[in-house]
Amino acid sequence: MKWRLIEQATYSAAMNMAIDHAVYESVANEREYPTIRFYKWVNSSVSIGAYQNPKEINLDACKKHSIGVVRRMTGGRAVFHDKVDFTYSVIAPIRIFNYSIENAYREICSRIINALNDLGINASLENKNDIVIGNKKISGNAAKAMEKGVYLQHGTLIYDIDFEAMPEVLNITKDIIKEKVTSVLQHKNLSQEEVYESLKKNFTKGKEFKIEELSKFELMRTQDLAKTKYNTIMLPIGTLLKNKGACYVERGG
């Protein structure tokens, strides 16, 4: 199967989620090949789960630290995305993973683990979608098997930790962050370029792929979604909000 690779680029929180959504639509309608995308955030940001209660994060602290807030299309708990961290998305037919979300998590997360191993960092998979070093989390991943049989998974790899903003924004003490979260730089003094090249190499290993940019349709659709869907973290009246917390404290989401 042919794949498309979209190289790392930096966008706002709303734009990043809108791009993932637009790419999903392109793949679902067979306008584009299954897609691997890497991206960063203009400002450090928080993404909350599809039905997570936004009151679980400190919105005042987000304003104070100029932290963007966006609601993901995937479920799970709040994730803090530092602007130096790495984020990816994989969008492809679920049949590639034998119609199993668990298989998909294992396959895609193994590529992050292999990238870290190549860099001399020994990581492992826990609770199907958490990547850990020892007992500390370095990567959280969320997914959704969407309509038309298309699977979307995105996640983050922590490069460095902001011990001032992250605890305050996520309503977690600094001690808990130090106890439960780790980063690339806490294990190896690696440049951004070294980490990105290892991720790219491992995500594309064994795949026939072509490096491309977003299509004109995707760019137009992204602008529309960023303005109409991802510019607010509130859900329609009557939608059931769920208390989830922060992904770094509770594993498996």
What would your notes on this structure say?
With about 250 residues, this protein is α/β, with parallel strands linked by helices. The protein has a single domain, classed as BirA Bifunctional Protein, domain 2 (2-Layer Sandwich), CATH 3.30.930. Helices cover about 30% and strands about 25% of the residues. It contains 7 helices and 11 strands. An 8-stranded mixed β-sheet has the order 7-8-9-10-6-2-1-11, with helices on both faces. A 3-stranded mixed β-sheet has the order 4-3-5. α1 (about 15-30) packs across α7 (about 215-230) and α3 packs across α6.
Quick gist of this model?
This protein is of the alpha/beta class.
SSE order and pairing:
Blueprint lengths: L1 E10 L1 H16 L6 E7 L3 E4 L10 H6 L3 E4 L7 E3 L4 E8 L7 H18 L5 E3 L3 E4 L2 E11 L3 E8 L7 H6 L3 H7 L11 H13 L3 E4 L4 H13 L25
Parallel strand pairs: 1-2, 1-11, 3-4
Antiparallel strand pairs: 2-6, 3-5, 6-10, 7-8, 8-9, 9-10
Q: Given the C-alpha coordinates, what overall shape results?
A: globular
Question: What is the string of SSEs from the N terminus onward?
Answer: EHEEHEEEHEEEEHHHEH
Q: Could you tell me how far the N terminus lies from the C terminus, measured between alpha carbons in angstroms?
A: 30 Å
Helix content: 25-40%
How many helical stretches? Answer: 7
The CATH superfamily title: Bira Bifunctional Protein, Domain 2
Structural class from helices and strands?
alpha/beta
Strand percent estimate: 25-35%
Strand order of the largest sheet: 7-8-9-10-6-2-1-11
Number of domains: 1
CATH third-level topology:
BirA Bifunctional Protein, domain 2
How many E-type strands?
Answer: 11
Whole-number mean pLDDT: 94
The CATH top-level class label = Alpha Beta
Largest sheet: 8 strands, mixed
User: What's the multimeric state?
Assistant: single chain
Kindly provide the radius of gyration, computed on alpha-carbon positions and rounded to a whole number of angstroms. Answer: 17 Å
CATH architecture: 2-Layer Sandwich
Unreliable segments of 5+ consecutive residues: none
